[in-house]
From TrEMBL:
Organism lineage string: Eukaryota, Viridiplantae, Streptophyta, Embryophyta, Tracheophyta
Matches recorded under Gene3D superfamilies: Apoptosis, Tumor Necrosis Factor Receptor Associated Protein 2, Chain A
Family matches, as InterPro entries: MATH/TRAF_dom, MCC, TRAF-like
Keyword vocabulary terms for this entry: Coiled coil
Pfam families linked: MATH_2 (PF22486)
Organism: Arachis hypogaea
SUPFAM superfamilies from the UniProt entry: TRAF domain-like
Domain MATH span(s) in chain numbering: 1-99
Name the UniProt record assigns to this protein: MATH domain-containing protein
């Protein structure tokens, strides 16, 4: 069983470090052994097709050697954390390892194991969505309904020519917003943490730079307005302040701007 070892702050200063390891010894052959493995380590790019960062290597794993191989200086932390580079999006990144073990006549059940690490997603819970990407199964119906009512969603994604990974992240974030709104229709049951969750989700969705979301923005604003109404204390300065905020929200929604 091969594993990915990741050092987000680097082994060498200012670099992301990634290694391939033999993993748990219970999966390894007993006695003296050796295996020559060819491998690729890839840091996926969410923004740009063909801009993944890939390094290849070959290493002889054996009972008498250090059981990991990789790169202490895979990519600079500056480039990795640069939001415009496309490697780290919404605090999420994807690393894929492809491994080919040469057969020496003593084949082990875990030879030629191809391993991928996709942050936050279980492939068993994902399914194809319109041939564009894979999304969570519980988001599919919500996304289908949204795309049926607003066909500009699919057209806009195709027009932007995003990578499959970036498209997946966008549809997953949209699915989370839709799922949230469906699951929290009763504002009386909401607390401040849940309200902040919606704000965070909406900010994440807007960070992708997709313009055709006016229909959803209206729903989110209505929800936030309801939350303000719930919190209005009609006595004291707090109540007066919140009533002013609510009035401003109404002005913005009606296309008017000003102070009350």
């Amino acid at each position: 069983m091969m594993r990915i070892l990741l050092y987000p702050h680097g082994v060498e200063k200012n670099y992301l470090s990634i290694y391939l390891s033999c993993g748990d010894s219970s999966f390894l052959p007993t006695g003296c052994w050796s295996k020559i493995a060819k491998y690729k380590l890839t840091l996926k790019n969410y923004y740009y097709c063909g801009k993944d960062k890939t390094l290849e290597g070959e290493y002889e794993f054996s009972s008498g050697k250090h059981r990991s191989s990789g790169y202490s200086s895979f990519i600079t932390l500056t480039e990795f954390h640069d939001r415009n580079k496309g490697f780290l999006v919404n605090d999420t990144y994807t690393i894929v390892a492809e491994v080919c073990v040469e057969n020496d006549g003593h084949r082990h059940p875990n030879d030629n194991h191809i391993m991928s690490l996709v942050t936050g997603n279980n492939n068993d819970e994902l399914m194809d969505f319109k041939g564009l990407c894979r999304v969570r199964k519980d988001f599919v119906q919500l996304l289908e309904e949204a795309c049926s009512k607003h066909p500009e969603l699919v057209r806009g994604v195709k027009r932007k020519n995003w990578s499959e990974n970036f498209t997946e992240r966008w549809f997953m974030t949209l699915g989370r917003v839709l799922h949230f709104l469906k699951s929290h229709k009763d504002i009386k049951d909401m607390d401040d943490d849940t309200y902040e969750e919606l704000q965070d989700l909406w900010e994440q969705l807007n960070s992708f730079g997709f313009d055709d979301l006016i229909w959803l923005e209206d729903d989110v604003k209505k929800y936030m307005a309801k939350k303000m109404r719930k919190n209005v204390d009609l006595e004291g300065e707090k109540g007066e302040f919140l009533k002013v905020e609510l009035r401003l929200c109404h002005l913005v929604n009606s296309g008017q701007y000003g102070l009350v």
